[in-house]
């Protein structure tokens, strides 16, 4: 087993302390977390490109290394219960909110910046549009949230960028008027733009409604390997009560939320992430490098940090982190939970209606 990152192989990455782990790269060199726990250092373990026994030598050393590098859900819960009082938590959140002010409380500031500009909206799914729940198949968004997203998409081009497979996240959201990027941006269905066909692996296709679209799948060569990894992980975890392996097409999540022990999420080592997906979609929408465009990205976990970073660099737009606990972020603003996200979307619409000529 190689400890270095290898740009042609999938890797197993250390997990977030609370949920699942992912196999990631570059700025995603950190584990991601939905519950706002502090990000822990990441362990990267590459799997060689051989087919047979792909996970054999990974298992024992990986689990040991992961155990020591980040605590389990139970451990964190226990520690936070004994050492932290509610007031400490409140105080810490308030201090944190100085650095990442509430996007609702600071809406006027955002509106001032957006004056005369076209907003492009990017939304993560889990933990942003839907609350985090134990069963990943039950992470439904509310009808009220769906209505808010549908409404906001009438006024601003809106895309969902999720770690889920594109089909799965579309199934959850069910709105045809949006653009969808699944597998952490490795599977994008966007509008047809001639420039995006410059990308390798970008092809013309049709969506479920028969509309012509661009389909971009930069990790398509990894598909057979990801399938193999998925099957291996199903086999490895079959006797672990509560473990659940999710095939997200170009990446795999192994959920340990309901297990005492750690598990993994796997995706190809590829210089592609949610930040790149934002740029790709902006370009596809003809909104890239336009002074009169203000991209806003709302997301809750480590994988969203790539998108926040892309927007922060060059002061291009705003990242909004969804978190009810303090955590370091590249975002500018914050929202506590999906309910506040819904409120924010509604506020955007009201503002647009009020200011529209
Ligand atoms: O990019 P996202 O849309 O935020 O997707 C990231 C992962 O979200 C899902 O897992 C998380 O939500 C589950 C449902 O609430 C929860 O049970 C799990 O513990 C969370 O990690 C999804 O199941 C993963 O495949 C995505 O990668």
Automatic annotation (TrEMBL):
UniProt cross-references to InterPro entries, sorted A to Z: HAD-like_sf, HAD_sf, OTSB-like, Trehalose_PPase
Gene3D superfamilies referenced in this protein's UniProt entry, alphabetically: HAD superfamily/HAD-like
Superkingdom as given in the UniProt entry: Eukaryota
Reaction equation(s) it catalyzes: alpha,alpha-trehalose 6-phosphate + H2O = alpha,alpha-trehalose + phosphate
Keywords noted in UniProt: Hydrolase
Cofactor names: a divalent metal cation
Function comment: Removes the phosphate from trehalose 6-phosphate to produce free trehalose. Trehalose accumulation in plant may improve abiotic stress tolerance.
PANTHER family found in the cross-reference section: TREHALOSE 6-PHOSPHATE PHOSPHATASE, TREHALOSE-PHOSPHATE PHOSPHATASE A
Protein name, as recorded: Trehalose-phosphatase
Organism whose genome encodes this protein: Rehmannia glutinosa
Species lineage: Eukaryota, Viridiplantae, Streptophyta, Embryophyta, Tracheophyta
